[in-house]
Amino acid sequence: MSSSAPDHPAPPPASGAVFLSYAHEDAAAAQRLVTALRAAGIEVWFDQSELRGGDTWDRKIKTQIRECTLFLPLISANTNARAEGYFRLEWLLAVERSRLMADDAAFLVPVVIDATTDAGARVPDKFRDVQWTRLRDGETPPEFAARVQHLLAGGSALETGRPRPVQRGEGAASAPKTRRIPVAAWAAAVAVLGVVAVVLFPKKSADAPPAAPKSAPAPQLSEARKLAAKADAMFDQNEEAPPATLDLAETFAKQAVALDPQDGEVRAVYARLLTNYLSLGYDRSPERRAAARAQAELATKLAPTSDEAQVALADIYRFEAATAAEAERILRAVIARRPDHRHALRTLGHALRRSGRNEEALAVYTQAADLPGGDPLALHNLSGSLRSLGRLEEAEAAVDRAITLHPHGVFLVRKVTIALQRGDLPAARGILEKVPGPALVEPLNVYTAMTVWLWSREPKKALSLWQSVTQDYVEISSFGGPKDYLTGVAQWLDGRRDAATNSWQAALRAVEKRLEAQPNSRSLVGWRGVLLWRLGKQADARQALALYEQMSEPNLAPGLGLRAMAARLGLGERGELVEGIKRGLRPSASDTGSAIRFDPDFDSVRNEPWFQALLAEADAKK
Fold it and tell me: Widest CA span of the chain, in angstroms?
């Protein structure tokens, strides 16, 4: 637990406030620091509540971190010991905001409250670029409060050179030496930015003049395109960006559109950003889908010859069966003109995978990955296709290539999924321990990690991760259903039967509320049956699951099929389910067999002789 709101009624966001972020084990030290700062007249946002999660809480911390003037993370042995926690989400939000600030702007003010060393601290790299303060056990001298007041008043941080940390009692540090950046490095950076600007936003006119001499200055981007480029950089090279990153990118995209509503290329960036909310499962509401489509279609009207606008339109079209073929046609036309268009290639790969054409997707992802300089995201996507086809060694090799190009935590998570598909839980746990905390913010990655701990029968670790997911109803590629269902499973494994029952009842209420609006949803009917089974209402569960079997739905919620099978087994059904289990235990392109072996949903039949015999038969055929 860490801070997200004051311990008194929350004031409206205001400049001049300090946001204090801490692990709940450090609450006493945090309270001492808060008391000293408030005594100096400094407003501190500091939460002592034990309640975390939910949309209200999520919106509150996003607003406060976006509006605060200084962000003070408390670093300690306790934060080092925790690979996940709400404070790590807060740290990620703060780092994302700081990336858009000037190098000498004062915002991050890390405070170490024990003997944790710089080298041993598990913190974001961005924290290491600024000066740290050491306040043993949160004891705060007047000098530190004065320094905070100075920074709140707009004083220059002068902290970009990573000087020695301030020792307790020192207060404000001496001015650090600034880090000198070689002229060649500056020149390379400017050149890269120039290339990005030209590729992302080519001139609108079809009658472009001849290329200027090399010595001519690069064309200046409009303010709208500069903001759009900021937004694009935050999500285009991070296809699994966390919600906070997309929210910040959306702020810039909206500002860009407001500045120049007639720029089709700016709207194309905004459209692709909106589509990312859909593809990542953060927001699949009809309103979000309609907004993405409207922006993409308007982009193509404003800039009909723009490849970026065409790709944005195809990106949203690929989600609908009625427009999927048109999406593929558009993307292939763009690639015919520009075979090196990485985003068009990746989007075409996604469209092909969505239609079940994994072999074709492999070729497209490989084409993107083999472009000069490589493409780690294409390799990541390539790995997913190979994993779907059961080609696990090749899938892991593709991930390793991606990690070589860019050692991002999301690629390590993909290695975890490969280990799970192999049924190698020790390997999955070993890889998971190496995944940095910020990578375990995005719901899909959180779900993967939670699966490892549930299958390993370590429910406390599973719960610690799952509580960071703020959606009440999760919709990701591996799981589509009420968050509280999995919360209840973990609580049940932890021996907290009453808490599990309460969670399953909450999940059932969420499902039944959705059923009122979607009475013909097979997925919701199936979830209702699974939850009724968990709650011991066997007759109602049988009726709901029987209806679920009779209904049809082209895109069943991911993860529901196996849970419905487990529920029916738990209700004493067997029959054709035995053949389904046998098929699932065969070497295949999915991790169904591993789920049957390890998932707690199958615990109700795990020790029955017939089930053990099926496992033994499958092992003998390996």
Answer: 80
| pLDDT more than 70, % of the chain | 83
Using CB atoms within 10 Å of the CB of residue 185, give its burial: 0 to 12 exposed, 13 to 18 middle, 19+ buried: exposed
In tens, the pLDDT along 57-102 reads 667 777 888 888 999 999 998 898 887 777 888 898 888 888 778 7
What is the rounded distance in angstroms from the CA atom of residue 563 to the CA atom of residue 530? 7
Spatial distance between the Cα atoms of 165 and 132, rounded to a whole number of angstroms: 4
Task: Single out the residue of 396, 398, 339 nearest to residue 368, CA to CA.
Answer: 339
Residue 132 in contact with residue 110, Cβ under 8 Å?
A: yes
The confidence band for 589, taking pLDDT boundaries of 50, 70 and 90, is low
DSSP string, 105-157: ---B--EE-SS--TTT----GGGGGS--EE-GGG---HHHHHHHHHHHTT---
Residue 181: how many other CB atoms lie within 10 Å: 9
pLDDT at residue number 274? 93
Strands 480-482 and 473-475 turn out to be: antiparallel
Give whole-number Cα distances, 105 to 65, 75, 181, in Å.
Answer: 16, 21, 18
CB 109 within 8 A of CB 148: yes
Q: How many residues does the chain have?
A: 622
Task: Answer for the pair 157, 104: CB distance below 8 angstroms, yes or no.
Answer: yes
Count of CB atoms situated within 10 Å of the CB of 540 = 15
The answer to whether residues 19 and 68 touch, using CB atoms and an 8 Å cutoff, is yes
Using DSSP bridges, classify how beta strands 111-112 and 70-75 pair: parallel, antiparallel or unpaired. parallel
Helix-strand-coil percent breakdown of the chain, rounded to 5?
Answer: 60, 5, 35
Range list of H helices, 206-306: 223-235, 243-259, 264-280, 286-302
Question: Is pLDDT at 501 greater than 70 in this prediction?
Answer: yes
Instruction: Scan for tokens 């909450």, then name that residue.
Output: 506
Q: Which residue, 296, 295, 224, is CA-closest to 257?
A: 224
Q: Is the pTM of this model over 0.70?
A: no
pLDDT above 50 (res 198) = no
Cβ–Cβ < 8 Å for 322, 357: no
Cα separation, 520 vs 259, in Å, equals: 44
- Residue pair 402/376 in contact (Cβ under 8 Å)? The answer is yes
Question: SS in 3 state form for 163-201?
Answer: CCCECCCCCCCCCCCCCCCCHHHHHHHHHHHHHHHHHHC
pLDDT at residue 164 above 70?
no
The distance in angstroms from the start CA to the end CA of the chain is 45
309-320 pLDDT per residue, tens: 999 999 999 998
Q: Residue 550 has which token pair?
A: 């009779």
Residue 255 class from Cβ within 10 Å (0-12 exposed, 13-18 middle, 19+ buried)? middle
Predicted pLDDT at 178: 33
163, 266, 580, 597, 614 from 583: Cα distances, Å: 61, 49, 5, 13, 11
Task: State residue 241 phi and psi, 5-degree precision.
Answer: -60, 140
User: Cα 316–205–263 angle (5° rounding)?
Assistant: 45
